[in-house]
Amino acid sequence: MSAPAPAGDSGHTDRAATMAQFTETRALSLRLAEPLSPEDQILQSMPDASPTKWHLAHTTWFFETFILKPHAAGYTEFDPDYNYLFNSYYNGVGERHPRPQRGMLSRPPLDDIHRYREYVDEAMAALMEDNAAWPVIAPLVTLGLHHEQQHQELLLTDIKHALSCNSLKPAYQDALMVPTVPSEMGWVDIDAGLVEIGHHAGNEAFNDFAFDNEGPVHKVWLEAFRIADRAVTNGEYLAFMADGGYRSPDHWLSDGWDMVCAEGWTAPLYWEQRDGDWWQFTLSGMRSVDPNEPVCHVSYYEADAFANWAGKRLPTEFEWELAAPGHPVSGNLMGAGHLHPVSAGERSGLRQAYGDVWEWTGSAYRPYPGFRAAAGAVGEYNGKFMSGQMVLKGGSCVTPDGHIRATYRNFFPPHARWQFSGIRLADDQS
Amino acid sequence: MSAPAPAGDSGHTDRAATMAQFTETRALSLRLAEPLSPEDQILQSMPDASPTKWHLAHTTWFFETFILKPHAAGYTEFDPDYNYLFNSYYNGVGERHPRPQRGMLSRPPLDDIHRYREYVDEAMAALMEDNAAWPVIAPLVTLGLHHEQQHQELLLTDIKHALSCNSLKPAYQDALMVPTVPSEMGWVDIDAGLVEIGHHAGNEAFNDFAFDNEGPVHKVWLEAFRIADRAVTNGEYLAFMADGGYRSPDHWLSDGWDMVCAEGWTAPLYWEQRDGDWWQFTLSGMRSVDPNEPVCHVSYYEADAFANWAGKRLPTEFEWELAAPGHPVSGNLMGAGHLHPVSAGERSGLRQAYGDVWEWTGSAYRPYPGFRAAAGAVGEYNGKFMSGQMVLKGGSCVTPDGHIRATYRNFFPPHARWQFSGIRLADDQS
Amino acid sequence: MSAPAPAGDSGHTDRAATMAQFTETRALSLRLAEPLSPEDQILQSMPDASPTKWHLAHTTWFFETFILKPHAAGYTEFDPDYNYLFNSYYNGVGERHPRPQRGMLSRPPLDDIHRYREYVDEAMAALMEDNAAWPVIAPLVTLGLHHEQQHQELLLTDIKHALSCNSLKPAYQDALMVPTVPSEMGWVDIDAGLVEIGHHAGNEAFNDFAFDNEGPVHKVWLEAFRIADRAVTNGEYLAFMADGGYRSPDHWLSDGWDMVCAEGWTAPLYWEQRDGDWWQFTLSGMRSVDPNEPVCHVSYYEADAFANWAGKRLPTEFEWELAAPGHPVSGNLMGAGHLHPVSAGERSGLRQAYGDVWEWTGSAYRPYPGFRAAAGAVGEYNGKFMSGQMVLKGGSCVTPDGHIRATYRNFFPPHARWQFSGIRLADDQS
Amino acid sequence: MSAPAPAGDSGHTDRAATMAQFTETRALSLRLAEPLSPEDQILQSMPDASPTKWHLAHTTWFFETFILKPHAAGYTEFDPDYNYLFNSYYNGVGERHPRPQRGMLSRPPLDDIHRYREYVDEAMAALMEDNAAWPVIAPLVTLGLHHEQQHQELLLTDIKHALSCNSLKPAYQDALMVPTVPSEMGWVDIDAGLVEIGHHAGNEAFNDFAFDNEGPVHKVWLEAFRIADRAVTNGEYLAFMADGGYRSPDHWLSDGWDMVCAEGWTAPLYWEQRDGDWWQFTLSGMRSVDPNEPVCHVSYYEADAFANWAGKRLPTEFEWELAAPGHPVSGNLMGAGHLHPVSAGERSGLRQAYGDVWEWTGSAYRPYPGFRAAAGAVGEYNGKFMSGQMVLKGGSCVTPDGHIRATYRNFFPPHARWQFSGIRLADDQS
After folding, report:
1. From C91, C362, C367, residue closest to D366, measured CB to CB
2. Domains annotated on chain B, with CATH
3. Cis peptide before B369, with omega less than 30 degrees from 0?
4. A with B: how many residue pairs have Cβ under 8 Å apart?
5. Strands (E) located in D201-318
């Protein structure tokens, strides 16, 4: 995920709330890293993932680069090398350290990164008290916090992958024990119509924020459709596997089947079979696969193949947004502490819409009509990602609370599996 | 391109016309191969391309497999091995020869392929006279002919690539000399509204045919937009190049820029610089790049980057379809004999909409709402291709006459450049 | 194989014999290509292999470039492009067509290559009659003929690979039927001593020729050893396979085992199992694997692993040369017409030393002490190949008669399998 | 480098000396790791290199696996997982952690590895006091210590590569300042003769040890030759570069030139040009290239190309061994503390034979005549590496004192450059 521009720039109202949010969000990042040793925090298990330490530094670099350096008079940067080391941006802000080599950054040591965070946090605290600066920086602070929340999710997602590469299969935390219950999949019917999609302007307060790619609001015509009232479970996915799901190209997109063959996929990522039973690696170590929990760590290809096998389809991102519950958002998000999807509760509306697993939609990630990327470096990389990726909706069990909403558009390539990604079915009416 | 199912199955009316079309289409394939020696016809210069000989055989296999074998009583297949050798389908119709190895098929010799075509054509002629069989096979014949037309375009597209790999840069044909004239780019304004997109059923006559992916007809809301009245020229593209188009990531999609760097792109495919001037390989050999001709052999990435650089955008496939002229279709298609795009004529409506170059749209190739792939092998591969590809519209200078229409949806991966693909700009109104 | 310089330059005596040899060798190349269609002759199935047509042209280019152009007054080259197209040399003689793209050379057509051969042969015939030129060109003619013989072997070796890629498994020729008989492996004992290795100078007559890498003659100390009196058979190799030869790393070199795993090797090249029986592709099509024939198309890795498994080792190139029978050379060479190894005859000395299969030795291909590459283009590529390759001895069933001798050093990378390469065992005495 | 079997098994005499050596060698490994943080010690910058932590653990695993577990009654292994994690052996001792994934081992933490070392050292100390066990384990202890010395060199070699990947170019230690002086290259002449090569048995005392691949002693015939009396300098190598050394294939082996082109080599590894001057990364950070120091971090390909350019050749491993000074070994080894090659001293015999840089020889790494790999796991991997690698002689500035001798055979693939490898020239007499 990139760090896109905020979608609007109207006046900001609530400084105290934002400052509190700043303190809380910055502290959460450190708290997430706490169970990890300095050695853990340097791990980079694949080019797409980043070390914990890098996430801690890069989110700090964001505040330093886009707020302190342009707006804090007399600010001295912590270390000029950091602009090169912790910059994820191609172009607007100078050269950057090659992404696949982030795991080579044993220096600067973790302690320096901690000092970097403190240094920047203090400078930010002072600047946020500055009445003259506040109106200018307010939208950037809000953006920086949402950017950091994205990296909090990635921090957990990436460290899960890194720990899974260790044959000791170490746990990040102890498991929370939850009762798991079966529950039928139901359907919600929605009528045809010309609907409005996307997020309205006026989003500078932290809680009213949206990324620029969630707008502009625009009209979309939708035919009548149905959408499943919960995510697809491991049990349902095991039936697909048992029916030869991974053994014949019948239900797969052509490039999906090529991937199955090239990578030798036979199950979701992190699953392994032991004595005939399926186990999966979680942030609490190896666990037996629970048939009632949502299936997780599947690619778009697998989600699409499953839907075809089931005689259904994936929802479009518009259908999903229209069907999703509005405020207040609730669900099995990071704050619930599971860091793993849990079984659906009793039937009532669209269950598991927020949290648990990101839900692949059948929509390619494209800019909304009328979208223009903001000028300059802060916004430059939003438009950069818009090709060959699919939209996911609803957040997951590692999405920070307060970060997700109905209009949120996440996006990944169709083969990506290391995100907490799952499946919700949809269908045409009639 | 695959061989999708016909979009409908209503009654067929004009047998004589179809039979004439059969004769003509089948003869055209051989005529296209005529300038090529048996040695030329076995060339396969990359896995995505196929040898001329393979195109000749595969299109014949289609009629044998889907029409003669199921519907011609007592039909004896020409050679049982051919089902394996000339089958492009994954699954429904048995194993197939690996695609990247098609250039290894020196046997069967070209003479045998010619005999195969005659054998099948004779059997088809007899079967089409059969009054009982006709209603059943009519839609399949029409489908088979449109399938063969797709391969006629590919035959020229693929042999162009193959000949370009020979350092002698041999010509496929002599160039037609045409006067080339500069012409301003104008704009066509179109109002907002809820429009219908796609092809209506009732398409079994050859001229009323559409592939299944062109339907169902469905409503789309479009905001007011503008669309350029001609394709982008080489001259305009040279200005992009001169302005550092290929030297900085500014205007590029992230994966587009990665491709520029990885492949070392500095110009469209087939261009090379000699003593400071740009030349391009054409089906008539090397030619100086003409500033008035449409730029051709650019990827979606290049088309998108050019549009960003120009402060515009690509049209969506819906905008393109809405703006395109209706019947009768005309333009610089294969029949014009240039086999190369030509400069736009005098201003009048949407010039160069059909023929010259396929025009990349900003739309990812996805099924239309309500689309379901037809059951069975004939239709099975349409849905298979719907991921990570972009829609192109309008046909090119190597598209057979009669094969293109406003609803036609071509699609290729965003990095593909060996098709005759170019650029038309669009913009929001206001 | 490259085209090394002749090892000496003493006076040449027998012009008539050389001219006869010229006629015969040049005619043999065409005869070898005769069963192949123009389409067959353009096939290139892997970068290491070349099309038949290229072999025909390249061997001709050698005479034109190194003899006619420098030594035939007033000679006009056939086509200036050919120097680029048919040059296999990096450096001394200008740019060259990229090796992996040789299969793209549909133009010039085969007919032109035939005319090229005639044109050069005529010019050569005239030049060889020239008394003044003869002493200068004689060693080059001899070299050119041995160079052409190398390519005759490659022509058959490469076309075998190309035809094997066609699922029709077409035959190059009909099989010669030969009785096949089992025969024990015996051993020949050889004493320790300081021996002379390599070819003496005075090699300009065709029959006394040697490549430069066969000299200088030099002393080598050898301990007492034993060498098997015939090649390892398919039957013996099948026992290795049955004992898990390809299933555990026990007997393999480290990089050999990596290759087994990466390539999924489970048998020699061209072998496939049908209903539990092993078949192999030959120049006469698919045949059942005969337990009495020498195993063929194994890599050095497989040869070495087999020897380890058998509790033996491969001979060094010095041991092999010392043990080999002297003049006259005889065996199952190309002239015997089998183009496939045959079972060993009755026991008598070192059977199958010449012909049947090239025998991998345990010697890395390095220059002999005192070796210096000849200056200039003719010799430049001999030294170029001396790294990471292993020496093979004795020729094969596709080696032209008259081309092989005890001092001949062939060399290929340890993973190469498409040559007609097999195994002879050796052991220390005591 | 692997851990080969000791070359002999005669009676062992000096227990106290070995125990002292044990203490010293084990302590040295920790001392080498001391300047490195836990984060540094997990770095793995390429599959061929290993993290510092892994070296510390693997050398300990060796003593546990081959001495304590079989020979210390009642020994309890430290952690059963370690056999999998820190085993570098394919086959004899169970499964192992994939080599390219060693950098993922954040767990067990470094502290555990330190405890592991203490635990094993204590058990070893006790076992070595055991009179009954001593005769059995003595040769294994000696082997284990030489094995650990190999890994001490690799530890420095690998961390140099890892630190070089950090754009901060951090130093491992401060540089020792040494005066650098120019010195002519002289030549040493050696007569022809039948010589003995290799290490005699009786090698169980630490100082009389040799690896099995250094034997058996065998006779080799050598012609008269000359060998340079010092290593090639940076200044001499810069002349090669200035003469277009990396810009034309003239002096290169064919596969060497392919590597130059594929990798874009223009200088030795770790060199970079800044404002026209050449700098190199060292264990003391970036330094200007000193023309008097030996050139270092060149591949065999570069060494061979340089020698050809200079009109000389590389020595064979036999020539090198014959020419090398005998006991006592001295030179710029690890103990000198430079960890970087230094300029040659005044002329006297074969300078820089030991230490400074490993010297590529023209000999492929093959077993000596009569060599048989020892049975069982300790010895199993010696023979495994004998293909496609070249022999290096003499040790380097990171070779532990006491580890090198004239008969020592190091070996690496011809493209390897991350070792401290350089060049010594040789030539034929006459």
Report:
1. C362
2. 8-164 (1.20.120), 187-428 (3.90.1580.10)
3. no
4. 90
5. 218-222, 225-228, 271-274, 277-282, 285-288
CB atoms within 10 A of CB A245: 23
pLDDT value at residue A176: 87
Model confidence pLDDT, tens digit, residues D368-419: 998 887 665 455 445 555 678 999 999 999 999 999 999 999 999 999 999 9
Which residue type is seen at C51?
Answer: P
Q: Does B42 lie at the interface with C, CB-CB under 8 angstroms?
A: yes
- Please check the confidence at residue D421 and state whether its pLDDT lies above 50: yes
Structure tokens at B375: 């059951």
Interchain proximity C301–D387, CB inside 8 Å: yes
Spatial separation of the C-alpha atoms in residues B407 and B393, rounded to whole Å: 8
Q: Exposed, middle or buried, B96 (CB in 10 Å: 0-12/13-18/19+)?
A: middle
If we measure between CA atoms, which residue out of C38, C25, C213, C19 comes closest to residue C129?
C19
Q: pLDDT tens digits for C44-61?
A: 999 999 999 999 999 999
pLDDT, residue C214, reads: 92
Token readout for A394 is 């609803």
- Cis peptide bond upstream of D328, omega within 30: yes
Q: How far apart are CA A308 and CA A304, in angstroms?
A: 6
Write the ipTM: 0.91
User: Which pair of structure tokens corresponds to residue D44?
Assistant: 């793995």
Q: What is the per-residue pLDDT across D6-36, written as a single tens digit (0 to 9) for each?
A: 444 434 458 999 999 999 999 999 999 999 9
Q: Does C162 touch chain B (CB under 8 A)?
A: yes
The CA–CA distances, whole Å, from C18 to B44, B384, C29, C124 equal: 41, 64, 17, 12
pLDDT at D8: 40
The predicted model scores a pTM of 0.93
Helix (H) or strand (E) segment spanning residue D392? strand D390-393
Query: How are beta strands D218-222 and D193-197 bridged, if at all?
Result: antiparallel
Neighbours of B261 (CB within 10 A): 12
Residue B93's pLDDT is 60
Alpha helices (runs of H) in B129-250, residue ranges in sequence order: 134-164, 234-242
B345: its two tokens: 């004529």
Angle formed at CA B367 by CA B361 and CA B370, multiple of 5 degrees: 135
CA C29, CA C144: separation in Å to the nearest integer? Answer: 13
CB-based contact C117:C33 (threshold 8 Å): no
Tokens representing A2 are 């990139």
Q: Do B166 and C107 touch (CB under 8 A)?
A: yes
Asked if the C-beta of D99 comes within 8 angstroms of chain C's C-beta atoms, the answer is: no
Residue labelled with tokens 């043990």: C323
| D287: exposed, middle or buried (Cβ count in 10 Å: 0-12, 13-18, 19+) | middle
Strand partners, C294: C233
Question: Residue A40: which of D40, D43, D106 has the nearest Cβ?
Answer: D106
Residue D425: HSE in the Cβ half-sphere, 13 Å Cα cutoff = 21
CB spacing of C166 vs B109 below 8 angstroms: no
CB contact under 8 A, A366 and B363: yes
Running DSSP on this structure, what letter comes out for residue C134?
Answer: H
